Amino acid sequence: MPLYKIINHNPTTQILIWKITETFSELFETLNLTPQSLQRLANMKSEQHQKGFLSIRKLLQETAHEDSDLFYDAFGKPHLKNEIHISITHSFDFSAIVLSDKKIGIDIELRREKIKIIAKKFITSEIDFIQNNDDQINKLTVIWGAKEAIFKIQNEKGISFKDHIVVAPFQMQGHTTKALLNFDNHNKLFAVFFEEIENFTLVYALENH
Length: 209
Hints:
Number of helices: 6
Low-confidence stretches: none
Order of helices and strands: EEHHHEEEEEHHHEEEE
Number of strands: 11
């Protein structure tokens, strides 16, 4: 299907979301990929991953960018040639990008029961406001997404979701929270925003200055 949703967070920050309903061929035939992207695509074993990769390029088209405008640094972080900050994500049926004049990270996750099983690997003090809570899965998905988004911004080896990033208490209906990164002499506060899209949760984070 075409573009699923646009979120204009502010005049200089825009999120675009794609729902992947197309076949691989339908996505591929409308794109002009660089040789590097074609090689990356060929090396992907999963068609689902390939379609996520291609749908990101479709979102770039929606912002008047081409695949050739996107490049990755030595740490695998995406950049655009025009110096606008970009972050990308895809999960199963959805993909999303965010463009901003500020450093920003984005994540989209399918809400699943499984997250309760692995929660101890990525939360510490957050357990206090999700225990015995009916929306535990929803909140855990936001917490994971917030930490993933912040990791994408900081992008440094050694950052632990559990040990170095703490998400402040929040309510699902508030659609926002804060998080703190404390790592290697960095002590940074982030504004976190989230919303539920079908059975997925979209989360994005911006550093507070």
